[in-house]
Every structure is written in C-alpha cells, then in structure tokens.
Batch of 4 targets.
Target 1
Amino acid sequence: MHDDGLPPLRDVINRHGLRADKKFGQNFILDLNVTRRIARHAGDLTDCDVVEIGPGPGGLTRGLLMEGARKIHVIEADSRFIPALQEIAETYPDKINVIEGDALAIKPQELSEGPYRIVSNLPYNIGTALLTNWLDDGWQNGAWQPQFLSMTLMFQKEVAQRITAQANDKHYGRLAVLANWLCHTELAFEVDRQVFVPSPKVTSAIAHIEPRNRPMAEAQPDILANLTAAAFGQRRKMLRASLKQICSDPMALLAEAGIDETARAEVLTIDDFCKLARLLPSY
C-alpha cells in the first residue's frame, strides 16, 4: 500500500491489464513523488476545482489528491482506465468526477461552478490544440475574462519551450506570442523520460501558465491570430513578403508601425505584433 491508502500504480496497471496506447498519446508517470511535485507547482488546490485531462491509471490524480485538491474533474477518452479511476473515487468520496469523453469537445468551465486550475500530463498528440482551445475559451463577449486560475501542463520539452519563449529565442513563434499576450508563462522544470511508462523518446517539461488581468497590449484576437499565422508561416521570409497574403501594402503597414521592412517575425515583440494588428484593418 502507498501512503494514500491505494495500491502501487504498477499493481493497478497489472491487475486491470492496462497498457499505454499510442493512438491516445499515452505515457504514464508511476512515481507519486513526481506527480506530487507537479501538483505542488500548480498552487493552492484546496480552494478551487481542478480539471485533469488524460489521467490514465491515475498517477497525477493521486498526486493532486495527496496535495489537498478540493475536487478533481478527470476527463479520460480511453474507457479501459475508467474502472481504475472509479477505484480512486471510491477512496476519496465526493472528490472525483470521472468523465469518459473527448477533452477537445469538453469545456472545463462547464464542469466547475467557480474558478478552477487545469493540471495535466497532456497526451502529446493533442496538447497544443487543447491549450489554444482553453485560451480561446478565456474570451467572453469580446473581453478577456478567463475562469482558470492557472494551467500546469506537461508537454514535450520542445513544445513547452515554444509556449514560454521570448522574442529572438529560436523557439519563439506564433504559440509564444498568443500565449504570452494573454498569460504569464514559465517553463517550471523538466521531467526525465525515464520516469514514464513506457519511456518516450523525448524529454518532457512542465509549463505553468497564469492569466493576465488584461492582455499585454490592445489587439483583436482574430486579427492577431491571422497576423501571427502569416508572419510565422514563412519564417525565413522578411515581413514585407510574408504579410502579403493578408495585407495589400505591407511596406506601408510596417512603416507606420515603426518596424524595419527587412525584419523577420522572430525579432518582433508581442507589443510589435499587437501594434501591427491594430493597424492591419486599414491596409
């Protein structure tokens, strides 16, 4: 027995005949010391709900509960893991809401009556899509009004670097601009691949994301999204060329924004992109 009163995760996996499935992007952490570290980095879990995606056999779920989570909504697409998760729920009455379904089709704010934290070892194959969905969900009636208090998410290390990068960093791109425009981001720590079962071929990392009270600078989200898609879609091109697909006069646009026409997207700050987004409708 472990110190949470439940059997070791390896025993749970063996008893239920569970194996990771590549189609779900599954890699499990069985060391509760690691999952508890992730849970602690998420902040105070006692005064809000927690949403977890892809819990698998429940390693992170148990870590969250051991660190005092008030209530956890776990969303699992793989029905094989539901019985193991229900066993955890029986040990922690009224603390776990087990949902079998596709996380891409479920909005976290519909699960919790108040502010919540998202803490997940995300499936590699849908991690970025989930993050962008959650950022989009933060907009209510044209205003940035996120209900999440924080997101503490495991990605492949390269993806975590793309989320937290700043201008002139080789990992800086569209994802970094959109995430940091709306949130404070931090690459919290790396997770060695040897702690996973099965062991992935890449190192993972935890990104911690907290929403800003207001976006870093004024811009319309749809315009900024289109602008960054064009700018970073052809990274090797100067902006005067890459912006032609969305702008009839990129040279004039860049001149009015005070940006060198020979600049490439990776050198622009988020303020620069927001300035361009505000001016773009006139061009």
Note: The chain has two domains: 9-211, 221-282.
Target 2
Amino acid sequence: MHQALSDLLNLLDLEQIDRDLFRGRSPDEGWQRVYGGQVIGQALVAASRTVAEPERLAHSLHGYFLRPGDTTIPILYDVDRIRDGKSFTTRRVVAIQRGQAIFSMAASFHEPEPGLSHQFAMPDAPSPQDCISEQALLEEYIAHYPDAAEHYGKRARPIEMRYVDPVRDHAPVPMPPHQRVWIKTVDTMPDDQRLNQCLLAYASDMTLIDTSYRPHAVNWRDQNFQVASLDHAMWFHQAVRTDEWLLYDQDSPFSGGARGFSRGAFFDQSGQLVASCAQEGLIRLHT
C-alpha cells in the first residue's frame, strides 16, 4: 500500500484504552491546529467500534468544533452509548484534550433496508483525467511563494484531488460560490465499509469551507483572514468506495456575519449519490 495512505489508515486506527474510551494522535506536519476532518474521521471510528452489529452502518453525523486541537498531544474520544434500538443505534462522542472538549459529535447507525428511492442527477463534469491536479496547483503556488515549499511541498497526500474549476490561490479572483472536485485515495482501500465511511468523513472537510469565500477573492495566506470550521454534518446514503473517483459537488448559498455556509454532495462515476454534507465555518476578516 502507498505509504501516505497507510499512514492515514494508521491515523484512523485508534487505540482502545477502556470500553468506550479511545486515543488518537495527529501527524507531525507543521499544522498550527488539528485538521477538522481528522477529528471527524477519528470520532466516527470511535463511535463505530461501539456498535456490535457489523451490518449497522453510519447514516448520519452532526459535529461541533469547540476548541482548536493541539497536534502535539493525543486526543481522547469518549463514547456515550445513548441508545441501542431495534433499527437504529445512537452514539455521542466527545473529543478531549487537557481535560476540555475540543469536538462533540452525535452519530446514528442503521442497517440498510429496502424503501422508496430517488436522487438528484449527478451534475455534468469533465473526467478526472481532464482536470488539473492538486500537485499542479501546488507547484503553481510555490512558484509564486517559494517559502511555502518547505511546509506544503513535502506534505504526504493520501487522497488525490483533481479540480474542475480551481481557484488560483496566489492570485484569487471573484468566482461563483460553487466548485467541483474529483477525489479518491492514492491506493486500494480495504473492503471494510465502515472504514470507507470514516475516510470519506475525513476527506469531506478538505475543500468545503473554501466554497464559501470563493466569491470574495480572499487569499487564505492573508494575515487578516481567519478561517475555521464551526460545525459539520454528513449523511451516508449508499455504500461507497473511496479508492474510486468521487465527484464532490459543493456550493455555498450564503455567507455573512463572519460565517460561511456550504453544502456538498458525493457522486460516484456511475452517477449514484453516495453521501451529502453541510458545514458552517468562520470566515473572519480582521481590520
């Protein structure tokens, strides 16, 4: 397995230190705070491990980011087994550092069953092979900001991303609050559906908040611009493989009051809607 993906799966493989208590770590990649998708993914791993029935998969999660996470110390995930019902299982997870909650999440699990079905059509998009890669955009950015090479150029990338309509971060211009990104892992994933869900939860936070400030031509490098996820919700509709290309279609219906709201939908290449998410984030301009 590709080393970057192996490292990510190890990151999601929490240590169980008590019946409902798990310990996670963060990679040493120079981040000032823990990446939000990491906390979401690890919290979902912790919740999933307390659900005995393997056929019960996560169908929704709702999380709040409460404090910045410290990358230099472990994160404890305390799971509350709120309910084990006949059809649904409900869990609450609190992520803790230094005795304080940094993230809180509720998650619900359900065994898929037959029922009424419909979905929105997959939006048109060029194939991943015809889109610009994250690596090409990064090289373009480093050409304008050479000091970024040490920090961003060497970072492991377990998830490949190809942008349909990218922002040029070195010189952003106003763009519609909508973006499409193809994503997949850089190597084959295990068949474990729960693990694929957790990895997709990890990936769902990578570009969603960016959509909310695309119309405003803000460079996240600006010292007076502050960005942070505030909450994150996700719904899993169908089985998903994260090692096959998924189109992440995102839009932002509103921003205001120093907050931006974004929505996202994941489609596989056959056009099936496999997951949806929504997020509000802090997008603050300091004067």
Note: The first strand starts at residue 15 and ends at 18.
Target 3
Amino acid sequence: MTCEAPQGTVWRSYGTDRRSTRTVRVRVSAALVAVTVLAVLLVPPLVQLDQQAVDLQAKLLPPSWAHPFGTDDLGRDLLLRCVYGLRVSLLVGVAAALAATLIGTAVGAAAGALGGWAERGLMRLVDTLSSVPHLLLGIFIVAMFRPGVWPVVVSVALTHWLSTARIVRAEVLSLRARPFIDAAVSGGASRWRVAIRHLLPGVLPQAALAAVLMVPHAMWHESALSFLGLGLPTHLASLGNLIQGARGSLLAGQWWPTLFPGLLIIVPTLAIAGLAGAWRERINPRRRSELML
C-alpha cells in the first residue's frame, strides 16, 4: 500500500524551493554588485594608475601573487587596469542607461498621453529606428566624434531608448483605462495634470526597471565599440580596449590578458541582470504560482 502526498503539499514544496532558489540568486547577485561597486569606488583613489607607464621587463607575466591577473604586453598590472576599465564601462553604462531612459520615458509618455496623430507619428519614428541594427547605428553616431567617453554615452543613449518608449507607452495606455483616471478627468483635471499626477508616477517603476536592465546592455556596447577602435582612446584602460589589445597575446598562447577582462564584462552584467530580474518579479508577481499553493 502506497501513500501519496496531498497535491497542496507538492505545490507548497515546489513554491518553497523556487523562493529559496530566488533568494540565493538575489544574494549572490547583490554580493557581486556590491564587490564591483566597492572596487570601482575605492581602488582608483587608493592606487593611482599611470596610463602611459611601460615596463617591458615584466611583459606578459602569468598570474602570480605579485600580479593576480598577470601583466599585459607592455608589462602593466592587469588587475589594476581591469578595475579601471570596469569603472569606465560601469560609468558609461549607467550614464547611457539614464539618458536613454529619460528619452524613452518622455517619448512613450507623450505618445500614450496625447494619442491620435501624435501617438502614431512618435511610434512610427520608433518603428523606423528599430528597423536599423542599433550597433550599426551606434557605430555611425560615434564615428562622427573623436574617441572619448561622451561620444560613447551619446551613441548608446540614442540607440537604446526605443524599448523603454514602448514599455512606457503600453503602461500609460493601461493606466488611461483605469477608473481613477476617468474620475480625475470628470473632476476637471487638465491633461497635463493627469499626466503629471497620475500617469507619470504609475510608469516610474517600469521605467526604472528598464534603466537597470539597460546598464548591462550599455556596458556590452561600450566594450564592443572600444574593441572596434571607436570607443575610448587605446591608451586608456577600458574592458573593450584591454580585450582588443590582447588579441595578439591570445594567439601566442597567453590567455590571461583576454580572460580576465572578459570575465569582468560577463560577471557584473549577469549580477545586475539577476537583481533586475528579482525586481521585475516583485513588480509583476506571478499570481498563478501563488494560487496553486
């Protein structure tokens, strides 16, 4: 004779396992983000890096206690340069994500609130720009300027606001159908007052989530542009520049100048994406799993 566990017990155990897995993922992501932020904030003021320094006697040393990440092809400590490069990539990602979110929120909110021909025109503009691969468009924009941080920020910001505009517009259209919006309009509130007092606060959580999710994407694009030689000047520490300069070393068998900058691109972006995923689940909870418990 066999005994089967009640169905409710099975679903409750499944929900508990999912919550514990989510908790572990969030804690690991938060720890990685905290370590990244502390490194980029504390290391550069404490240890100054001379971007022009060269020590050919220490050229391409493998990882050791003296140089945990080894040295590059000019004898420079790779760990310190990776931290400086990570700081540049993170600052570019955050600045570009904020700028793109502001543009996308303004366009999406205007399209959803105005409606009519204004909405159709703005969304056709979004569709037109979306039809162009944003990496190619970003290369075209950044190629018009001298290599530097701000051209990369402008390039990423002008090519990554489209998804935010769509998200904000959809949220505004959803809010416009709510009863409290009809009550505000019936009470004599102007369109501007409804947008500022009711629509904009309602879309801010989604816009902030889009900004957080955009930071890893912006970091990847900054690295790609620098790898192509269109981002920061080659002598400045950047994760894309480090990987671009290590291609010859990789072909010669020295793996560390490419591996560690690549890991510093992947790990922080995955950590930020993990925190953003947890935030998204909190904003849009899955009611189905709760009902099954």
Note: The CA atoms of residues 156 and 238 lie 16 Å apart.
Target 4
Amino acid sequence: MAECSVCFRHCKLEEGQIGFCRGRICVDGVVRARNYGKVTSLALDPIEKKPLARFYPGSRILSVGSFGCNLRCPFCQNHEISWSKEAERFNEEAEYISPEELAATAVYYQNKGNIGVAFTYNEPLIGYEYILDTAKLIHEAGMKNALVTNGTADLSILEQLAPYIDAMNIDLKGFTDRYYREVLGGDLKMVLAFIRRAVQSCHVELTTLIIPGENDSEDKMRAMCQWIAGLQNANGETIGQNVPLHISRFFPRFNMTDRGPTDVALIYRLADVARDYLKCVYTGNC
C-alpha cells in the first residue's frame, strides 16, 4: 500500500488502485500520475480567459487539460473531464502528448501571439509530474507557464513547481469551512495555505464564483477580502491589496440546477465591497 501526497485526502492505495481524483494510481508500490500526458483539451486562448487580467494582457496562451479532479463541485463547468462518469473514458481515449511535443507546439504558435502554456480545464495539480516536466522545457524556450487551479494541493507539490510557474489563477471558492467541506468536498485551510505561498513565488489572481445561498453575503465577501489584503510577499511586505480578484456570476449547471443564476446587481454590489480592500476587482459572466 502506498499513500498519495498531493492533497489533504492522502489516499492510501493498493497496487493498481485509483485515487479519489481518478488521475492518480498505485504502480509498483508508488503513487503516480495516471493521466500523465493524456490530453483531453488543447486550445490557443486569450490570456484573459484563464482569467488572468494583469499578466501579459492581450496575449494568447496555449491551454492544455487532462482528466480528473480532487474536488466535487456540483456546478462544475468541465464535469465531462473532471469528475462525472463520462470523465473515466478519457483514460483510454485521450491523446498522449509528450512534454517535448507540447513545448514544440507552444513555440510553433509564438507567431500567433502565444506566450507559453497554461495548465487548466481539469485540476492540473493531480498530474503535477507532467506540469513539472513540461514547464521546464517551456522555460528553456524562453516562454511562460501559467496554472489554473483549485489550490487543493500540499505545499510540497507547490515547492517543486514554483521555480517554473510564472502565473496562477487560483479558485478561492468561498471562505467558510462548511462550504468547502459539505458542498465542494474540499479543505479551505489547504487552499489558504497554498495561496499564501503562491503569492510569494509568482503572479497570482484569484477567482470566486458566487453561488446563491452559499457564498453570496456581503459579510463573507468582506471577511475574504480582508484576508486577501493581508497576504505578504517573500520579504514579509503586505501586497495582498494588489492581488486581482475575479468575482463571477453563477449559472445553473451539472448537479446544481436547484437555483437560478446569481443576480447581476448582487455581483456588482459584492465587487464594490471587495474594492474597499482590494485595488483590482473584476466581474465575470455578467
């Protein structure tokens, strides 16, 4: 039996057993990425779509995704590749693209405005080995690496990747233990620790999707933004007020169709609350 070290679950796996995230497996007594190089999505996206508003605005970035996720968000917009029953088929159907091939593709699209690679769509950190191998090659080519993640990973994983990641958009999905535990199947403390360390190593932007009846109160937004504003860089300087926050509108989807979309006026009101603490606040899906 071997133990996975990627996230708070610490899945203990017998030989051949697959972890909760469906992206990791025990082989020869070692837990490794089952989804290594198995690409389900590949697109040359505007950088703003990640969303990254303050990192090389106007550029494009080659976005790559695999399958699997270590959360269970009922509103997941990429559930087909993340955690629904359909996602499992990609273990056989996904195209294998080696780190060398992906890096070469990124270089090829430089003349289309591409600045590098974004690891995104599903939860990329459950296959961090592929990120590490590819990101090194992207840096060698003089290009940038971005990570779009739920931040549910042990700091030991982040420490391995930090030298090669230039930007992250991290989901801070809410600011209560109950919401993370009962609705998302996650761990708020792990995400906060991940963000706290990430801002010390690269450009970071945060995204919060506002779910009616869950994380939509002004008090919760105020508490979250106060915490963000207090983030410090590696020198101990408070820089959190400069961390961009994207506040996005929810639409019913997947397993959460029991409520309507977030009221647009509420999104704007929460953005105004956030601006009392943060300098760069954006609204999305409005």
Note: The chain has a mean pLDDT of 97.
